[in-house]
Amino acid sequence: MLNRIWFWLLLIGVCYAPAKAIVAPVLGIDLATVSPETGEVVPPPSIADMGKEVTTAAIDGAKAAVDLCLSLIGPMVLWLGVMQVAKDAGLVDGLAYLMRPLMRWLFPEVPNGHPAQGAMLMNISANMLNLGNASTSFGLKAMQGLQELNTTEETATNSMATFLAINTSSVTIIPFTIIGLRAAAGSEDPAGPLFGIFLATLCSTCIAVLAVRTLSKLPAFTATAPAPPNAAALATNEEGA
Amino acid sequence: METFLLISETLSQWMIPLVILGVALAAKYRDVPMYESFVTGAKEGFNVVVMIIPYLVAILFVIKVFLASGLFEDVRWMAARGLGSIGLEAAAESLELMPLALTRPLSGGAAQGVFVDLIQPKENGGRFGPDSYIGNTASLMMGSTETTFYVLSVYFGSIGIKRFRHTLPACLIADAAGLCAALFFGWLLFT
What we know:
The complex is a heterodimer of chains A (241) and B (191).
Chain A: H1 2-27, E1 33-34, E2 41-42, H2 47-88, H3 91-98, H4 100-106, H5 115-128, H6 133-148, H7 158-168, H8 176-184, H9 194-216, H10 219-222, H11 231-240
Antiparallel strand pairs in A: 1-2
Chain B: H1 2-29, H2 34-68, H3 71-85, H4 89-94, H5 98-103, H6 108-118, H7 133-144, H8 148-157, H9 167-190
Helix pairs in contact in B: 2-8, 6-7, 7-9
């Protein structure tokens, strides 16, 4: 799926602008735009300029990705350290114990007391409080835990899909970034949408869980599902926990 | 309102120190050797991030190229023309939210740019302002959706998963649900 999406994004990205420049005159459409500030007519960019723009975009994208990763290293190391301390203090297991029934229902493949359970809960909590980098660190840790339970190398398990669906639709209690941006724009009521965001994310999380469960039962996806982890290994794991 | 803002601002600034302090206090209470345990946990951080780089470059570069093509602006322009020609100019206003809805799953930075542009107040040359229907609904949309492609490539990249199975459709359905919910609550609460 991603292979196809990747190809089409690339194809459209490279070909759309030049194709438009060639087809539009044939159809008799004028591509010149009127600049809103000066009222002057701006001619459409030349095909050479378009090439330049696509090149810049490609290089910028690659650079931005690496910059992003580099800027993630510091917070990542910090939060994984904090998480280890929280774990050794028994906080993570305490949280996992409280949420056990919910986690059992959402992630039947993850045995109680498995490290992935605690890390997923930390990630969801950090998401609710809008802790940005912290939630990424906990989330990646959770993915490592889920990968331990994966019987294949490169295929996503149902637990991973459920976790990511919950993650991308996460219930937000305090969206600090949005409040900040609205305050910066001079809003009279920067926190106005807070309740609306809570309701909307609640809806989207419910639908995410519903969607991921329904999709996982479709024949096309059950056929590719990794085999469940070895029952004997699970049993020893639970005894250990 | 003033006091609420002040509390929210203060809380947002103190959230991270307080969380870390809370963890340290609990560790102290349980007599955990925290320095050692911090270092043990932190060791893994570097490798995980380096592992993500190729996955993230692959996805971000192709998304940048796609956004640079200008397809989104043309789709919005055509949809606005279409709605205008059948006499639905009022609905055409909501189309101003479309670039935000479409860029959000692809790129957090680009979506934030679109969002800030939508909530610019009129006196700063903006078109809607943060407290307008569009500004408020855009805030709901920002809050209720995620940069799905980025999250999936980072999370799966960190453990080397290449076949996502039903994850992407499920996440996109969740995003679409978030957007619809945002539009609905925006209409309910702000018109």
